[in-house]
User: What shape does this take?
Amino acid sequence: MEFLLLWVDELDDALGALRHLAPQILGFLTATALFVATGAAVLMAPQVTLTVGAIVFSASLLEVVRRRRTRTADQREPR
Assistant: This one.
């Protein structure tokens, strides 16, 4: 009987740890799946994949520049 209580206690601890780490585990699996999908897309349709990647990269760079200009403009304004 004591063995079963110890086993259930360890199982409860393991489930609690898994519940705590689940977002990190899912994030890692998602990143890995996206990496594999990108690699497969580059092998199957390199022109399309690289074009889409360039568009996404350009959009992110433009967003960084826009945020930096907004931050600079906010710092110049007297408060």
User: Anything to note?
Assistant: The first helix runs from residue 2 to 44. The chain has two domains: 1-44, 45-79. Residues 45-79 form one domain. The mean pLDDT is 91.
